[in-house]
Write a sequence for this structure.
């Protein structure tokens, strides 16, 4: 009877090993399918549905498996690049069809004259390096941006602004 129990125990262990192996193999296959889906559509919910894997399982795999986490991040990046390429291709197709919104979008994002973005820091020359004409232009530009359009404003002792004609009237 001991021999039979030992054989049954060995059979159970073999079945358990095979079961674990098949689960691991299925899990590896599911992970690969999910990674492929993320490369095509970088939206986790959509990719999980396409691969037949729940979102909870996806996030559990990411927590438990550092390699899978890195692979899924890479797959998401590749998916975003794929969608960007596809979108850019569609945009160019619309530009060729002379669709003004597409043309405007392209120019705003790819041509400096049409861009509303602030561009990096460009150092201004110091006053010593500017000609008198450049200094006047800079002062005028600063005056206009501050809302002060009158070039001949003076200040009294209380630091309040009064024009040159108002100042003459006060002295009289």
């Amino acid at each position: 009877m001991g021999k039979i129990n030992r054989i049954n125990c060995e059979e159970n262990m073999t079945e358990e090993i095979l079961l674990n192996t098949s689960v691991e193999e299925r899990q590896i296959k599911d992970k690969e399918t999910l990674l492929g889906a993320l490369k095509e559509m970088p939206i986790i919910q959509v990719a999980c549905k396409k691969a037949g894997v729940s979102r909870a399982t996806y996030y559990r795999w990411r927590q438990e498996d550092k390699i899978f986490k890195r692979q899924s991040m890479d797959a998401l990046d590749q998916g975003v690049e794929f969608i960007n390429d596809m979108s850019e291709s569609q945009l160019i197709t619309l530009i060729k069809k002379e669709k003004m919104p597409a043309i405007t979008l392209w120019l705003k994002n790819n041509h400096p004259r049409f861009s509303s973005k602030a561009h990096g820091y460009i150092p201004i020359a110091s006053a010593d390096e500017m000609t008198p004409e450049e200094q006047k232009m800079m002062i005028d530009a600063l005056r206009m941006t501050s809302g002060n359009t009158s070039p001949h404003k003076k200040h009294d002792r209380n630091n309040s602004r009064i024009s040159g004609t108002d100042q003459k009237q006060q002295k009289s």
In short: Residues 2-112 form one domain. Strands lie at 153-155, 161-163. The longest helix spans residues 2-40. Confidence is low (pLDDT under 50) at residues 154-160, 162-168.
